[in-house]
Amino acid sequence: xxxxxxxxxxxxxxxxxxxxxxxxxxxxxxxxxxxxxxxxxxxxxxxxxxxxxxxxxxxxxxxxxxxxxxxxxxxxxxxxxxxxxxxxxxxxxxxxxxxxxxxxxxxxxxxxxxxxxxxxxxxxxxxx
Amino acid sequence: xxxxxxxxxxxxxxxxxxxxxxxxxxxxxxxxxxxxxxxxxxxxxxxxxxxxxxxxxxxxxxxxxxxxxxxxxxxxxxxxxxxxxxxxxxxxxxxxxxxxxxxxxxxxxxxxxxxxxxxxxxxxxxxx
Lengths: 128, 128
Fold this sequence. Notes:
2 copies of one chain form a homodimer. Chain A contains 3 helices and 6 strands. Helix content of chain A is 30%, strand content 44%.
């Protein structure tokens, strides 16, 4: 499906740009993509975070604190319809001391002709 | 949005039926919903599983072994377009010995007029 390929290229480019900023302590790339009804899971929250304001507050706390020296986005894959798409990949984030291994799910939606993120789920690989 | 509400009702009913079977050691409810291009994350895999055959093999191993006595599906939420939808919820699974706390993301897609699952991401709450 050609339309799926073209959507995939766009979405992976958006994600990569946001991730590069994030790795330098700057959450603005992701915040620019999140919609008002954004929902969020990560391994540190007791339950799902709902709404842009909550994620903005969370990211303000970590702003300037994240420092990833190098990363590998493994096998990004996009499953899409015309208006909605799910991007999944494994991520290796290398810092001076350690490597963090992640599963990542990002759900994108076409809003006024731009791809935005409506849901994000981060989890650690094999924490158990 | 009324169409979103109607999609939400359908999808939560499908998920609940599959989950109830799962909790009795029967993965067939989920397997009936997964598409051939299904993708999957859980906390026990080294990387994403791609394709129906892989998940079928994994579920064959656990078939008959899961026994959840009681569960709570907390605050299920559906964000939808006409052809695709993401269901998210927190899940508490009670067994005799312990309670497992989960984050769950399910991406549904309309295939030949039926809602099917194209992606699933399970992770444990606060494993770190």
